[in-house]
Amino acid sequence: MTTYWFKPKRYGYGATPVTWQGWAVTLGTVIVMLSAASVVVMTGFRGHSALAALLAIYAICIGTLWFISRGKTDGEWRWRWGK
Q: How far apart are CA 39 and CA 24, in angstroms?
């Protein structure tokens, strides 16, 4: 039996965490993104290369979260208008 970490949102598109595993993945993504931003700021990187690196890290984090949450959602992802 598969345990689902996320459930489809009532309004809109996507899913929301419902188990501790789902919340842990979501919180871990936020922590990695904030850590990457603080490393860029603290090390003094400036310019387009720092911004490009930060955006690449953000894209990888969000893509990974999307992939995991899509696979661990109970139901399909589609636009919902509520009940």
A: 22
For residue 5, what are the CA distances in angstroms to 39, 43, 65?
Answer: 30, 36, 12
Which residues have C-beta within 8 Å of that of residue 40, sequence separation ≥ 6? 50, 53, 54
Question: How far, in Å, CA of 66 to CA of 50, rounded?
Answer: 24
pLDDT digits (tens, 9 = 90+) for 25-35: 999 999 999 99
Chain-centre distance of CA 51, in angstroms? Answer: 19
Contact 15, 8 (CB under 8 A): yes
